[in-house]
Design a protein that fits this description.
Blueprint (H helix, E strand, L loop, with lengths): L11 E6 L6 H12 L2 E4 H14 L7 H24 L7 H10 L3 H16 L6 E6 L2 H5 L5 E6 L2 H14 L6 H17 L12 E4 L5 H16 L2
Parallel strand pairs: 1-3, 1-4, 2-3, 4-5
The structure holds 2'-deoxycytidine-5'-monophosphate.
């Protein structure tokens, strides 16, 4: 290989999938920090697409509105607005979370966002590895990922965690309401025809029901290090 064309360094990809409030987001972010890898929260893309739809007065379940929302988001990202679009605090609202789950069931929306995610996995800036979390990273976006984790937990425990998180932000939330929301979202994310949530072939299932965040991180790190030999 000549000096003009140095051999491309291999990018290590860690794919993390799992249902809402399974702990995958914190885990993915912490893993990326420890490993010195780039991180992409792909749920934020679907949330940002839903926010575009809601701001335009559309319905997240409507195919045309959702496709327009995804297109508007993509245009923002392509013109350098990714950080602003994906760090908007409104993305964390429950209405936006439900909207994200609706737009994410529409094939044209997934299609519009696939390229951005794969591009990130192949070229994560100056990093030699990346961690992506979502629902279809190991199954659709990066089926060749070096490590695939499926992070899950009992639905009741996940609802309790989400309730505490909301309460810690001063948001009034009852366990029953949070559980009902979570059930709806789980059913929609796992039951849809386009890229449903399920463990990817070759993934390691990490059940965090009885684990603290620190224990889950230690276990994930053990799995990653064992696979990547780092
Ligand atoms: O991970 P999250 O809660 O931020 O995701 C919000 C919604 O986006 C979730 O209900 C399903 C959808 N999603 C998806 O379908 N595929 C992904 N890779 C990430 C999120």
């Amino acid at each position: 290989m000549s000096e003009d064309f140095p051999e491309k360094t291999k990018i290590f990809v860690v794919a993390i999938d799992g249902p809402a409030a399974s702990g995958k987001g914190t885990l993915a972010r912490d893993l990326a920090d420890i490993l010195g890898y780039a991180y992409l929260d792909t749920g934020a893309l679907y949330r940002a697409a839903a926010l575009e739809v809601l701001r335009a007065g559309g319905s997240c379940a409507d195919e045309d509105d959702a496709e327009r929302g995804a297109g508007a988001l993509r245009a923002k990202i392509e013109s350098g607005g990714q950080d602003a679009a994906l760090s908007n605090p409104d993305l964390r609202n429950d209405a936006v979370a439900q909207g994200a789950s609706k737009v994410a069931a529409i094939p044209a929306v997934r299609e519009a966002l696939i390229g951005l995610q794969r591009e990130f996995a192949q070229n994560p800036g100056g990093y030699n590895g990346c961690v992506l979390d979502g629902r279809d990273i190991g199954t659709v976006i990066c089926p060749e990922a070096d490590v695939k984790l499926f992070v899950t937990a009992d639905q009741g425990i996940r609802a309790e965690r989400r309730m505490k998180e909301l309460q810690s932000k001063g948001i009034d939330a009852t366990y029953e309401a949070v559980l009902a929301d979570m059930r709806t979202r789980d059913e929609r994310d796992s039951g849809r025809r386009a890229a449903p949530l399920r463990p990817a072939e070759g993934s390691v299932v990490l059940d965090t029901t009885d684990l603290s965040a620190a224990e889950a991180l230690a276990e994930a790190l053990r799995i990653v290090k064992q696979t990547l030999d780092v």
